[in-house]
Each structure stands twice: as C-alpha cells, then as structure tokens.
Amino acid sequence: MSELDEVPFYDYPTLLERIINKNIIVDDEDHAISELKNHSYYSLINGYKNYFLEVDTTDTMVDNTTFNDFTSTYYLYSDISSLIFKYILYIEKSLRSRLSHIVAREFGVYSSEYLDRNNYKDYQYLRYRTLRDIQEVIDTCKSNSLTHYFKENKKNIPPWIVVQDISFYTVISWSNILPKHLKSELFKDFFENSNLYEWFQEKYFHHSFHFLREYRNLAAHGKRDFKEKINNKLQEESSVHFFGSTLLKKEDLDKNRGLQDLLAAINLILKYTQDIELIHKFLSEFILVIIPYVDEKDYSPTQLINQKSVYQILGLPEDIMDRIALYIQYRTM
Fold first, then answer.
1. What's the 3-state SS for 200-262?
2. For the chain, how many structural domains are there in total?
3. 197 lies in the same domain as 58
4. 87 and 44, same structural domain?
5. Interval 114-154: pLDDT, tens
6. Which of 297, 286, 274 is nearest to 320 (CA)?
7. Rounded to two decimals, what is the model's pTM?
8. Among 52, 71, 82, 327, which residue's CB has the most CB atoms within a 10 Å radius?
C-alpha cells in the first residue's frame, strides 16, 4: 500500500500565500484573512475552486479570478442552501404528519399495536430494522424529547408523537413498509398532480425522498451539492413523467441536469409541497437570493461572478423563473 500524504498545518499568512499562488487576486489581504478565520480555507477555496479552474489544471484559476469571486459564490450557496433546507423540512414534516395519521387510524395508538410486524410488508427487507429503530427511540428517548415526556406522563406514546423523534431515514422506511393500500393513500397527495404511472410511484417515492434527505443533510451545513456525496438519483424516465416538460426539459437531461442536483431539489419541492401559498413563499424567497445578480423585471443575468451568471454558478437553467411561474399558474388552475 502506498504511503499516505500528510496534511500539514498552515497559518493564515501562509494560506494567503497559497491562495495567491493559485492565480487568485487578493485586493485586501486583511479582509481575506478575516474571511479565512470566519469560514476556513477548505470551505472557501477547495469548496468552490471548480468554478474557476483553468482548463486541464487542478489548482490554477483562470486569469482575473479574485478572492471576492470565491466569497460571493460561498455566500450565494449558503443562502440557497438555507432556503432549500427550510422547504425540504416542510415536506419532511408533511410526510411525518400523513404517515402517523394513517398508522394511528389503522393500527392504534399504543406502540405494542402499531409496531406489530404483522401490520407491515417487508419492503426491501426494511421491516425488522425499521420497527426495531422506532422501538429503540421509545426505549432510549432523550430527556428533552416529546417521546420521553409522553413516556413519563401519559399512558401511551401515539404514532404522531414518536414520529417527531425518529430520523427522516426511519420515517421514509416506515412509509415504505406500509401495506399496499395504505401506501397508495399516502402517495395520493404527493403524486396526484403528475403523470407518473402508479406502478412506478413506490420506487420513485423511495429514491426521491432519500434524495431529499441526503440533500437536506448537505444543505444543513451550507455545502455544495456534490453529486458524489449523494447516493440517490432520480430515475430519468419517471422524472420526465413526474415533473412534466414545464419543470424538466430534454436540454436539462442532455446537460446531465435535473436528476441529482439543485434543480432536482427545487423541482421536488415544487411538486411535493401541497400548500400553494407555501410555493408562492418559496418563489419569493428564491428571488431574494438571486436578485443581486439578475434584472428585477425579467430575471436575466446582470451581475456576473468571474464571467459566470448566477444560473451557471448554481447549475440552473436560465429560464428557471419562467418555469416556476408557469408551474404555479398550472397548479392554481
């Protein structure tokens, strides 16, 4: 086995020298060091250098790349990540609510009832592990959790309580092991405004919600949507039927866009958010993120980051605003 490289420590002046050696213009060294203290070299430079690399190089930026290009991109991604995280949480809460309502109605409000393995199907061998994980949350609940309060003060811990304390992964798995007729009921709201065939919904639900879970975890830390860090990818043909040509176009697929990235996350938020007012709110907040870089009337790019538009930086189509507006119009018809 080859010897591993050592990762050395660099003080701030040395880090600044390394930045300059990458062909990055630093106009204000004191400001640059302050930014490095606040956000770290790895987050700023390594996280976003791919946008500015010279062709066929791994560590040299194109001419006229500035340190401010990196900070602008970093803050842009931080803002968009916060927005995406927030709206994925709304979808997550919606799933938790729908799932626990069905489970309580069908199987009861006592854990001995609703955790009975005979109530469920063994979808992808998830049943045993899922029910075990829920029981473990009940048995080892933290003292500040809702589950602990009900465990200490009530006769039972109903599904709509324990569902608040289990992981998003377990929520998805719990949904997946429902009997077919209950799973169809759960899917109804999520898929009724699409042309996705019913027999594809189960698999699409599984991968799309796990994609949202993974994307949420990246967004929670303000990280870029590195595809290599996301295991779940939306199936192309099903996505074409699910999103329709308004949200997902052939040119997106030709550019390897829309199945495992920010566009996929935005499209899923639009499709899985049931409250139309919440979709309007998402659009308003999305505009606030991009407005420093676009025209206020038609949202065409105005302010570039090293010759790249905000849409190029985010990996989004330049007509994304038109697509969202048209989709909202369709939803309100």
1. HHHHHHHHHHHHHHHHHHHHCCCCCCCHHHCCCCCCHHHHHHHHHHHHCCHHHHHCCCCCCCH
2. 2
3. no
4. no
5. 999 999 999 999 999 999 999 999 999 999 999 999 999 99
6. 286
7. 0.94
8. 52
